[in-house]
Write a structure and sequence with these properties.
By secondary structure, the chain is α+β, with helices and mostly antiparallel strands. It folds into 2 domains: 7-194, 2-Layer Sandwich (Fructose-1,6-Bisphosphatase, Chain A, domain 1); 205-336, 3-Layer(aba) Sandwich (D-Maltodextrin-Binding Protein, domain 2). Helices cover 31% and strands 24% of the residues. The strands form 4 sheets. Strands 4-3-5-6-7-8-9-10 form an 8-stranded mixed sheet, with helices on both faces. Strands 12-11-13-17-15 form a 5-stranded mixed sheet, with helices on both faces. α2 packs antiparallel against α3 (67-80). The radius of gyration is 20 Å and the shape is globular. Bound molecules: 2,5-anhydro-1,6-di-O-phosphono-D-glucitol and manganese (II) ion (2 copies). The site of 2,5-anhydro-1,6-di-O-phosphono-D-glucitol has 12 residues, from β5. 2,5-anhydro-1,6-di-O-phosphono-D-glucitol is lined by residues 63, 92, 114, 117-120, 209, 245-247, 263.
Length: 337
C-alpha cells in the first residue's frame, strides 16, 4: 500500500483480501491502536502529570514496577476488555492471565502484551515501547486456560509494537510483511510511513549488554570478540555497537538499518536457575515474528524461537535476532561448540 494511508484504512483494506473475514480482527486492531495512542499521550506528559518513578511494588518477575508500568497495563486492560473481541489477556505486569469480566461478550482472540518495554529508561527520557502478540482462542472458548495461551510463536495471528521515541511509531505484521506507521498527533491517526520494512542481510552493528561479558558462554564470547577485533580480525571489517536497553528501540533500529541484537544465556542466569532475560510470550515471540517477516532471523542461539513449545506465561528465553547472516553465524558458533 502507498505511503500516506492511515492505519485504519490499511487494516480495513487488508481485511478485504481475507476470505470470510468478519471484521472482528480489524476492530480488535483498532482498539489496540486507541490504547497505544492513550499510552503515547501519557508517556509524552511524563513529569507534567506526576507519573515518573517507582510505584514501590514488584511484578511477578520480582522487578520493581514503575508507576507507568502499572498505568500502561491498566490502559491496555481498560481499552480492550469490554470490546467483545477477546477471550482473555495476559501481561508482563499480571501474574495470572486475565479473564474477560462476565458483563462483557467474549471474542475469538487472545492478547499477550508488555505494556511498557524498557521501563528502566522512562525516568531518563529515553525511548520505551509496547509489545503485543495476538493468538486465536480455541473455538467456543469462554474461559481460556493457561494451556490455551501457551501456543508456539508460529501460531501468532499478529504481532506489533509501538515505539514512543522522538515520534510515536507502530510497527505491525499479520504474516504478510512488516509495515511501519507514524502517529500524526495533529489528526490522531497512525499514517503509513515505512511500507514493507526489510532487514538488510548483512550488518556491522551489534547490540548486547557488555557488562555481562564475563558471564557469557563461549560461542557468544567468540562472536563478540571477533566483532571487536574489527578490520584486523577474522571478520575483516569494523563493527559498531549500540545498547538502548529498550528491546523495542533495538528491534526498530534493526528493522531500519540492520544489525544484531542479543540477550544471550549466561552463567549468572544459570546460577540463579533462570532460563534467559526476555520473556517468550510477550517479548521474544512477537519480536521474532516481526523480524522473520522482515527477512531477518531469530533464535535462542540454539533453536528458532517461534518453534519453542511454551511452558509458562512468564517463561524467559535467550534471544539472538536481526540480520540473517549474523544471527546464522551465532547459531553456527553454538552448534560447533
Ligand atoms: P521491561 O522494561 O519490559 O522489563 O524490559 C526490559 C528488557 C528489554 O527491553 C531490554 O532489552 C532489556 O530488558 C535490558 O536489560 P538490561 O537492563 O540488562 O540491559
Ligand atoms: Mn520488556
Ligand atoms: Mn515491560
Amino acid at each position: 500500500m502507498e505511503k500516506g494511508v492511515s492505519l485504519t484504512q490499511f487494516i480495513i483494506e487488508e481485511q478485504r483480501h481475507i476470505q470470510g473475514a468478519t471484521g472482528e480482527f480489524t476492530s480488535l486492531l483498532n482498539d489496540i491502536l486507541t490504547a497505544c495512542k492513550k499510552i503515547a499521550s501519557e508517556v509524552d506528559q511524563g513529569p507534567l502529570i506526576g507519573i515518573m518513578g517507582s510505584a514501590g511494588s514488584e511484578n511477578v518477575q520480582g522487578e520493581t514496577q514503575k508507576k507507568l508500568d502499572i498505568i500502561t497495563n491498566d490502559i491496555m486492560v481498560d481499552s480492550l476488555q469490554w470490546t467483545g473481541h477477546l477471550a482473555g489477556m495476559a501481561s508482563e505486569e499480571m501474574e495470572e492471565l486475565l479473564q474477560i469480566p462476565p458483563e462483557y461478550p467474549r471474542g475469538k482472540y487472545l492478547i499477550l502484551f508488555d505494556p511498557l518495554d524498557g521501563s528502566s529508561n522512562i525516568d531518563v527520557n529515553v525511548s520505551v515501547g509496547t509489545i503485543f502478540s495476538i493468538l486465536r482462542a480455541p473455538e467456543g472458548c469462554d474461559h481460556p486456560t493457561l494451556e490455551d495461551f501457551l501456543q508456539k510463536g508460529t501460531e501468532q495471528v499478529c504481532a506489533g509494537y509501538t515505539l514512543y521515541g522522538p515520534t510515536t511509531m507502530l510497527v505491525l505484521t499479520t504474516g504478510n510483511g512488516v509495515n511501519g506507521f507514524t502517529l500524526d498527533r495533529r489528526i490522531g491517526e497512525f499514517i503509513l510511513t515505512n511500507p514493507d520494512m526489510t532487514i538488510p542481510e548483512e550488518t556491522t552493528e551489534f547490540a548486547i549488554n557488555m557488562s555481562n561479558q564475563r558471564f557469557w558462554e563461549a560461542p557468544v564470547q567468540r562472536y563478540i570478540d571477533e566483532c571487536l577485533k574489527g578490520k584486523e580480525g577474522p571478520r575483516g571489517k569494523d563493527f559498531n555497537m549500540r545498547w538502548v536497553a529498550s528491546m523495542v528501540a533495538e528491534v526498530h533500529r534493526i528493522l531500519t538499518r540492520g544489525g544484531i541484537f542479543m540477550y544471550p544465556m549466561d552463567e549468572k542466569m544459570r546460577a540463579k536457575g533462570a532460563t534467559g532475560k526476555l520473556r517468550l510470550m510477550y517479548e521474544a515471540n512477537p519480536m521474532s515474528y516481526i523480524v522473520e517477516q522482515a527477512g531477518g532471523m531469530s533464535c535462542t542461539g540454539r533453536e528458532r524461537i517461534m518453534d519453542m513449545e511454551p511452558t509458562g506465561l512468564h517463561q524467559r528465553v535467550p534471544v539472538v535476532l536481526g540480520s540473517k547472516e549474523e544471527v546464522q553465524r551465532v547459531m553456527d558458533y553454538h552448534n560447533e561448540a
